Fold:
Amino acid sequence: FGSSHFRASRLSAAPRSSTPALSLSSAAMVRSGAQLLAALALCAPAAADLGQGLRGSVRAEPGAMLDSRDSDAAEEASGTAANTTRAPALTTTTGGDAEEGLSPWVVEGPCRVSEDDTDCVESPNFPKNYGNGQSCVATLIGHKTRYLDLLRYDVEVQYDDVHVDQQGPLAISREPQTITGGLMWSSDDSTVGGGWKICARALPVTTETSGPWVVFGPCEVGGPGRDCVTSPHFPEDYGNNELCYMAVRSDVTRYADLSPPDVVAPHDFLVVSPNWEAVATGRELDDVVLWKSDKSETAGGWKLCAASEPPASGGDGPGGDGPAGGDDGPAGGVWSVTGPCTIDEADAECVTSSSYPEDYGNMETCTMALLTDETRYLAVDSYDVEEGYDFLSIGGVRYDPTFAGGAITEEITWSSDESVAKSGWRICARRTITTMTTTTRTFQPGSWFIDGPCESLVEDGKQCVTSPNFPEDYANNQKCSLSVYGGGTKYLEVAYLDEAAGYRADSLMMGEDEITHHASGQAITEITWASDGLTSVGGSWKLCALEAPKQEAGTWEWTGPCELDPADSECITSPHFPGAYGEGDLRCSMWIYGGETRYLEIVRMEMETGFPPLFLGGKPPFA
Structure:
């Protein structure tokens, strides 16, 4: 356990044929019976494999606990003072929980059982800083499962750690955590923290019993029901080089209610991991929140509460003192805005990022909501942000071009991170679906929005998109993102697909699914395409957007001379069936339209011997 008292490898077990028992070869290694109990409780499962006879002065039968007389004998033999705490002392027991009112813990080392709550064990000197080079072991009596309740955990991350049940370092979690064996603590020889107080509860820890927050670091929990967490020393200035992880327990749904923060951005920041989005009022607290300050200037800090309902918009929202539309917003009050985002003075139907068209700021958050009950449609006049780090979200879903032209039914939020800033965005709430213009082309509702070298084309009145250089081969290392702008749901037609292109090393995907002919008839979501740089084989493809599916889902679609059975539309045949299909290079591709699952029945199969030319997904269906 990292304790010098247990480093001698002289713990042994009786042969398997005898009654298992454990002993230490020198009583000088044992400071008290309770210390031996700590060793036995954690090591017993592996003891039978040691396979050596027993000798020595202190012995325990399986399941037995040493009482105070054993402790006294051990201390006499060793000539040392006990360094094990128990509150109060236990008598001999054969397992199970500690006696009523007693602590379930046995502690070896400088840690201690808490005086005000004997379910809890504390770091040395708690609630003050612990010291360097310390270690201790705290063992649960009886090894019954208990539930961790972290009242405080402020340590030097990655260097000073608590390990539970001989697992990795304790990590923050929204889910309940259990403990069965015990915990081990050690600190290194440098930076220290405020320490920890960890409790082992007999019943599950919930928001009702312990409040909604789990906090790692020096940030402080308070407020009615322990619903709020603040920067250290709030409302006084926080300190340098602070790091906190915070999460709301999974047994409740809570929403961020952030008072206007006073931090030195972008060097100090409060974000939601794993994407480092700035915390915004109204956001569901469904992931870990991170606070970090650097080594220079500090400020007054922040207060974040976990609200049971999304807080109402309006007033001075988090992220700055930007204008708010409110009930008396300009030009009829189309928008309510909190934060540094701005209602356009020339057009009250529009909102922009701060300083637009100049660069927006770092660590900004805004919330925007419609004040009118009239249906309004989103028009995106400009959108230039740091991709993957700064986000405009609608109803909690990150913006993509398919949102443009859609009805605005949910709150819109904006957040930027602590680094790169760009010229930002301008969005409007229009009474009708409008044309969107970028620096390169104009998008009519229902047309393809293309990011990359793929090409648009109108064919027989259909809006289509093709691979670069279609119908010739595309090149290596190309990629596109495709979506349909406004105009409601559109349906995919796979008009041409060279399925051998790139030997499938190049990907054409809709959402998480590969596009094959089978995708025809499905509603279009965001499509991505990429070619790799590892092969010279190219290919080509063409996709079209239809107002409605061209045929019923679950029916056959095909290319080539194969034929639908006139007597049974669920069946497809070779050319001229039941006659011979003929000679020459005959090829067909067949698939089920609309992505509906169907099951194959082979009614008849008679082909040239030795070569199976009918394949299902690349494999002969009769194999």
Observations:
- Confidence is low (pLDDT under 50) at residues 1-99, 313-332, 437-443.
